[in-house]
Amino acid sequence: MRTIRIGSGAGYSGDRIEPALELAEKGDIQYLVFECLGERTVALAQQARMKNPEGGYDPLLEERMRAVLPQCAAKGIKIVTNMGAANPEAAARRTAEIAKSLGLSALKIAAIVGDDVLDACKDGDLPIMEFDGTIKQLGNRLLSANAYLGAEPMAEALKSGADIVITGRASDPALFLAPMIHAFGWAMDDWNLLGQGTVAGHLLECAGQITGGYFADPGYKDVPDLARLGFPIGEVGEGGSLVITKVAGSGGAVTARTCKEQLLYEVHDPRQYFQPDVVADFSQVSIEEIGPDRVRVSGGRGHQRTDTLKVSVGYVDSYIGEGQISYAGPGALARGRLALEIVRERLKLTGVASSELRFELVGVDSLHGAEISNRANEPYEVRVRVAGRTENLREAVRIGNEVETLYTNGPAAGGGAWKSARDVVAVASVLLPRELAKPQVRFVGA
Amino acid sequence: MRLREIAHSRTGDKGNISNISVIAYDAKHYPLLREQVTSERVKAHFAGVVEGEVVRYELPNLSALNFVMTQALGGGVTRSLALDAHGKSLSSALLDLDIEPGSDDK
User: Fold this and answer.
1) Using the beta-carbon criterion (under 8 Å), do A358 and B64 form an inter-chain contact?
2) Threshold 0.90, pTM exceeds
3) Cβ contacts (< 8 Å) between A320 and chain B: which residues?
4) Are the Cβ atoms of A389 and B15 closer than 8 angstroms?
5) Beta-carbon separation of B82 and A270 below 8 A
């Protein structure tokens, strides 16, 4: 039976760099995938592209490529990534320049374009899923609309000989599914294989989250050597068999427990995990440890894909103003509460216009609110935090100011004030008839 | 005893929806989870945090439950005013739930 080994080199845009190099050097992998595009990142990248037509791709593209390209080229490891963000072609051109500067001019680099479906969404004036409203009603606050593309165009690029495939918005598991479809020639209507391949992609896409990251809880779930956390490798067989493992000697652990947690991460109904290529069914998945840092995952299934693609719509939602200040020692809690009361009254007195406000004490009730937190003992120190949503930046600034002025106008011994005001680019979703997205593969000369 | 003694948990986020897995360390405790960690209890535990409904999915193969909580992330990860906009810390709060031990565990 033929098997491929796929390494997961990043779980988000800012992820550690060296675990991917470790995978390329010692992982015995044929494919290295970098998942770097968060829900709203493509909208922020679109803003960057509007300012600079050659910009709008992942800010760490250069650092990641420089780190791994020599090893990948030497070993013939193919790279698949969504670091193209809002500008896959510019990312591909930049990667070609980097490859050339490293003396690797023979590499074939492909960009996948066509996830930008802003025009199609506007033409259809599609309804927004999360709130009442349509695309057109967002008016000039609308920034971007990108469809989650499936694995097909990436698999096609690999088939055409690409060494590096750079896409924009694509479903995260599809980045991993593409090498499987390419290597094994899986049919695009073999729903059970695509479902099990989606299980593999889903488990791998957050990199360190399956090798012991986002997991350790001392005394309950101990994980060795998190500072040197190894990133995962999926061993996939042509019939859909899957073993999750990592580089021998790297930090972290791959266990049934880490795999179970990651299987359900960001999953709603496990029988219906909607993907562009398949509706995957995780409900019958079995997970079994078969050796040290080796876990077998089987039983992923699938059903026919839907007629629509999910589209991530970026828009300017509002502005957020925020201020913080700390109190310590005996009476810290009482002074923190007094500070919150003062700011609450000041925002009223001075007429700051906001649609939503939060008053909280970090270290006491900021994460889960007052009801759950009431049981806790009094802390040594507290940090006052006030945040509010406003219609414009000027109002947002005033919220942080009212916290900062506690220095000279508030309770005794307040220190370390901090404030910020920012615009909020948020994302919402629409469903687009799939035939309206027309992905294309474009090679650039290296 | 606390839920933490018999189960582990992870939170995930999509928009304004948070999901929390609750996974038995030992398959023998799965019936306790099914019996005692109900949607209603989870909803009550997160009063003041979760404004929408809580739906529970069962995964007997994994001895796991998956709770999907709507209107749970302050209007959505990308626009929330919360310090922990993703709700990543919610799993730790759920593990604080009180569980009546089974006859084997007393």
Assistant:
1) no
2) yes
3) 81
4) no
5) no
Are B82 and A215 an interchain contact pair (Cβ–Cβ within 8 Å)? Answer: no
What domains can be seen in chain B, in order of their start residue?
3-100 (3.30.70)
| Backbone phi, psi, residue A34, to 5° | -115, 115
Cα-only R_g, chain A: 24
Are B78 and A261 an interchain contact pair (Cβ–Cβ within 8 Å)?
no
Alpha-carbon gap, residue A383 to A339, rounded angstroms: 10
**Nearest by CB: B13 against A220, A266, A368:** A266
Cβ-nearest to A372 among B57, B66, B93: B93
Tell me the CA distances in angstroms from A22 to A49, A153, A215, one per residue in order. 32, 28, 21
Residue pair A304/A274 in contact (Cβ under 8 Å)? The answer is no
Give per-residue pLDDT as tens, B61-88.
999 999 999 999 988 888 999 999 999 9
The shortest C-alpha distance from B94 to chain A (Å) reads 10
Distance CA A347, CA A327 (A): 21
Q: Rounded to an integer, what distance in angstroms lies between the CA atom of residue A384 and that of residue A69?
A: 47
In the block, residue with structure tokens 């074939």: A108
User: Can you read off the two tokens belonging to residue A296?
Assistant: 């077998």
CA A223 to CA A229: how far, in whole Å? 9
- Show residues of chain B in contact with A220, CB under 8 Å: 4, 8
- Whole-number pLDDT of residue A55: 96
**Model confidence pLDDT, tens digit, residues A217-258:** 999 999 999 999 999 999 999 999 999 999 999 999 999 999
Q: Using a CB–CB cutoff of 8 Å, tell me whether B15 touches chain A.
A: yes
Strand ranges, E, within A223-270: 232-237, 242-246
N residues, chain A: 446
CA distance A362 to A403: 14
Query: How near does any CA of chain B get to the CA of A194, in Å?
Result: 21
Q: Note whether A123 and A202 are within 8 A (CB).
A: no
Helix H or strand E segment including B55: strand B54-59
- Quote ipTM for the complex: 0.94
Q: Compute the residue count for chain B.
A: 106
Amino acid at site A210:
I
Provide the β-strand partners of residue A323: A386, A419
Comparing CB atoms, the residue among A257, A269, A424 nearest residue B57 is A269
Is the CB of residue B6 less than 8 Å from the CB of residue B29? Answer: yes
The conformation of residue A215, written as its DSSP 8-state character, comes to: T
Per-residue pLDDT band for A39 (boundaries 50, 70, 90) equals confident
Contact status, residue A305 vs residue A174, Cβ threshold 8 Å:
no
